[in-house]
Amino acid sequence: MASRLAEQTILNQNLQAAMATRSIIDQAVGVVMAQNRCSHDTAFGILRRASQNRNVKLWHVATDIITTVIGAPASPAPTVTR
Hints:
By secondary structure, the chain is mainly α. The chain has helices spanning 2-36, 40-54, 58-70. Helix 1 packs across helix 2 (40-54), helix 1 (2-36) crosses helix 3 and helix 2 packs across helix 3. The two termini are 21 Å apart.
């Protein structure tokens, strides 16, 4: 039972982290869409290629874009608490 509880806790933490980074990535996709007048899929592809070319995580690229546009570090989505 303790093992399953630990697994669920880790899963919960991973899902919350994914939600936070997803928000930043979605914001960056919107910026790329506006700047390039392209579709969501095309904008995401641009971000993905930039991530691969720089050999950094996608959310790092997204954070850099948001920071450049708003002049402040991107803040992740609020975490969900119970």
